[in-house]
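Homework help board

Subject: predicted structure for assignment chain

Our instructor gave us this sequence and asked us to write out the predicted structure in token form, then describe one feature. I got the tokens but I'm not sure how to describe them. Can anyone check?
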Amino acid sequence: MADSISPALHRPVLLDAVVRAAAGARRAVDATLGHGGHAEAMRAAGVEVLGIDRDPDALVTARTRLGDGGIRYLEAAYADPAALEAVTAFVPDLILLDLGVSSRQLDQDLRGFTFRPGAPLDMRMADRGATAADLLNQADAGALAEIFEAFGDERRARALGREIVRRRARAPFATSDDLVNAIRAVLGPQSGPGDFARLFQAVRIAVNGELDQLRTALPAFRDALTPGGRLAMITYHSGEDREVKQQFREWSRACICPPKQPVCTCRGRALGRLEPRKPILPEPDEIAANPRARSAKLRIFRLADVA
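My token output:
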């Protein structure tokens, strides 16, 4: 069924694995619809889909591609109260989150996700709220350092925060070149596209509050699933994957009491299990066709059959 996707658009990451996870599902939520590649394949397998995305441009593209048969649409961030309410009312047996930025968004310079020269520092998933330029021009050096350390795994995060504050005193940050030049000044001439991608991603995560959304949505999505339902998460960043892994592992434990507590006072049962226990990774041929898939990990949690 996965080969039924429209050839004119980019093939979604880990598509075959997602379709396998959807086997037997009747209603699926694609909570990061993007341009509808995963939803298209799931619908072709006979699954009714609720597609959610905060990006109105993505929803227009998806709706043009998929039409209205067998799929509903909602414009919202997946952790917004309206989205969580819609997911619960839909009574899904599969929920998919494909985190990160779509290839189409990355390829549109005006959206400001790219470090290509001259791109505006925007990075917003939707056309509202503070931009990346606002963040870089207003946050203090300590807050910037926390962003680069927590979301970019940057060892020289403090120096980079100070360098941004020093540079913006002369002229405000406005384009990708401003941030690239600050990174080069701190990391040295050996820095390159890998560093730029990692640190631009850190700013994007902060601008969109992505980890906060994830922490809010995960337990709500788990509780919305029917017994035996699956929560499938595709992550691209160590912070995202760590959050998913920790929550999935806790849900899979029968007891979550402190280790030395003599009597169990917690739920006393596992809420479900990891399926499989280790993350599913892209095959080499997928990475060759789409290098942006190289950091992707798919983790699946299956809710217990009896609540």
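Reply (TA_rk): Your tokens look well-formed. For the description, you could write something like this. Residues 109-208 form a domain with the DNA polymerase; domain 1 fold (CATH 1.10.150.170). That's the kind of observation they're looking for.
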